[in-house]
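Issue: copy button drops trailing tokens. Both records pasted manually instead:
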Amino acid sequence: MGALLGVLLLTVTACSGSDGAEEETEEETHAAVALTIAPEDGAEGVPTTGGLAVSAEGGTLTEVTVVGPEDQEVAGEITEEGDAWAPTEALANDAEYTVTAVGENAAGESETAIAGFTTVAAEATFSSSWNIPDGSEVGVGMELSVTFDTPIANTAEVRDAIRITTDPPVEVRGHWFGEQRVDFRPEEYWAPGTEVEVSFRIRGVEGADGVFGTLREDISFTVGRSQVTTVDAAAHTMEVVRDGENLRTVPITAGAPGTETWNGKMVITEKFRETRMDGATVGFGGEYDIPDVPHAMRLSTSGTFVHGNYWASSGTFGSANVSHGCVGLADVQGAGDPNTDAAWFYENSMIGDVVEVINSEDDVIAPDNGINGWNMDWADWGAGQ
């Protein structure tokens, strides 16, 4: 009987557990990240803006790729929280896109979702053009001017689809002149050496009801040395200053009484070694028609130039104003003498250089008469748009 009791006690003790017994562990589990792509796979007639979005629930997005026409990827951004992605540019019209989204949960387990869709066709399109060639070097006064072949109603959307970045960084604003032109500039003249990158992302942007842009292109330009020329119409002189130093003071003739030269800051936009100037094209009837004006550089759309003058007497320059509004410098017919003042100024000027006229008996030139937005206060530049 005592032996049997000892066996029972031993058995109970063995089954009661102790500090050295094996413990059970429960394996942690995570739900898969849920990815959502809008629009759904196979959707048609998707808007070019506002229709595409990707989100993640129960995890974060790690990569989103959207590929459209010609295998071109759509730029976009994932939120800081990693739970959503949205495009940063409009999509093309009537185009097929494929979205590939990758996300992962807290355990690092990855999920992939893929969807394809087609965007809405455009009822009509508008084209865009601009004034600065890709890769060019320009003067410190150059403004980027973009024009459209149809009136733009959604001015803010179109303006914001033109993205400008600079090195060194500087704020650049756009200003609309009417419904078909927007110009961009910084507050002050560009700093020499500034590198400017322009991304046109107008394609797929609705400029007016049913009318979409088509331009998607990148260009760049560089700002060269600083050259600002001051024309004193009363003193009949032109002072050429480069990088803060006076290169030369040149005798000139400006606009005669009744046809005075505009005051204000003007930018050289075109250069012609020789060109025809016909007064009938700028409202002067048959007062003049000169087929071979030498060393001509345009300052305004309305016909203001700084140019060589071979028909006035040499004593005119520096003493009298006899032109129809242009700034004239001594020159020879045929533009063949490199030693004339006009030839020198032509060779030492570039597109984008500034020519400022002071002390003329006329008004300040309108900021949209050429690339002359510098005549508008910064506070007004882009205001209300």
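Record 2 (pasted manually too):
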Amino acid sequence: MTKNVVIIGGGTAGCMIANLLARGLKTEINQRTVQITVVSDQEIHIYQPGFLYIPFHLKQPEELIRPMDQVINTHVHVILDRATQIDTHKQNVHLEKGESLPYDYLILATGSHPKVEEIPGLQEGGHMFYTMESALRLRDAMDHFHGGKVVVAVGLPHKCPIAPLEFTMMLEDWARQQGFRKQTEITYAYPLAGPYGTASVAEWAEKEFNNRNIHIETFFMIDHVNPEENVIVSVDGRKLSYDLLVVIPPHQGANVVRESKLGDKEAWLPTHRHHLRLDGQENIFVIGDATNLPISKAGSTAHFEAEILSHNLINLLHGKKGEKPYNGKVFCFIETGLNQATYISFDYENPPKPVPPSKWVHFAKSGYNEMHWVNVKGIL
């Protein structure tokens, strides 16, 4: 009897786990004792961390996009459709076009999604860079910006949590290189006591911002944007005026999670911190941004999780135990300008400690970005 492994999501997490499983279960797939299916609502795979570079003309859209059939192993069955409901009792995934997929093992790689509508006025009065369309729109706005007040305002939670810091430091360097840094006032508005949620990174970022004359507005919880007055307003009534507004809206989990009543109020999935199982389910696993784990929603998180989960699932399909633990490992490069970067590495037990920025780390990040297309195939 064929064992069906169904993966919902065609992003970094979904593609990587599918490719690792396909390589590890090639014999079983050829013998038709195992079938791996990926459900994706897009025909393309997008390298989302590249959105950061679009506003600065450092990346073009075509560099960040590949057709799904160039990214997914040929031994993986791909269904281009949207998952709408998960029935954990019947072990079925219902699709928008009417198909119902049975599963023996289900992997939820459903990602995180910006909720622009959570901030009234943002669509009309501000910008972001967490989608291709919004990154291109921001690029156009920056092409016409020649100095003035810039506000970068952050909502929580959001994926790629280090990206707002990166964008702010890259923008400061960009304004300097464009020749209008002295005419540019930059404010970074964050809803916590410092510019980042982890103390060690917040302390480092605060020093960097102070050295670059970037103002930090703390405890700024976004309420709405007033595009007529060019101000962004906090829940306590504070107003920040702007000529260019960049907002990182809060993110939530996928609609299929909400419709299936599997997650919390923001549709994050309760996930075992070591074995990546969905709480209360023995044969459903969660990977990437979709989890509620206390770690970054970042590409490297998906990478390290995929290595562990693929190992465990292959063992389970071979009739063995799948109990290798994930330790919360994350590695993040951090651009500190247009030609320098640092990095942080951490896990559940060890907090991040940024190293001094350098051109060499920037080159390493540039190389890592290019390696994504090999990385996502599970080869490295």
